[in-house]
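Dear colleague,

Thank you for sharing your sequence with our group. We've completed the structure prediction you requested, and as agreed, I am returning the results in plain text so they can be pasted directly into your records. Please verify that the sequence below matches your submission; if there's any discrepancy, let me know and we will rerun it promptly.
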Amino acid sequence: MKTVKTFATLLFWLLICQLPGLPGATAVSRNLDWYRTLNFPPFTPPDAVFGLAWPLLYGLLGIGAFLVFRNLSTKPAQCALLPFWIQLTLNACWTPLFFGLHLPGTALALLAAMVLQALWLAESCWRAKRAAGVLMFP
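Please find the predicted structure tokens below.
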């Protein structure tokens, strides 16, 4: 029974961490023509990479969240809650800003904030559970 509960908890965190992708999913599909008109630097990966990368990154975030938050009785795990929810919120905002509203400058500023915030999240997770902190670095 404990194994079922552990699996259900992991599944919960994996699903929670996929939620930020939902607000922008329709914005991306409706705005691919606009996106393809932009000038890209030579190091821009092909479109197919993004379709694989984001679920993987959100999956790592979910596994990290599972590792940290299954022990919420500890102070380090409790301290990781705020940066975790902020990270999910910022992720949920980026795609609608970029694709939906066509605001690449604003999305770039948000991305800079997300990088700094991700460092806070990684450090908070590291204090709670080192393996979770490592999962936050990608």
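Summary note from our side: The helical segments are 2-18, 22-30, 32-36, 47-69, 75-100, 104-128, 130-136.

Kind regards,
the structure core
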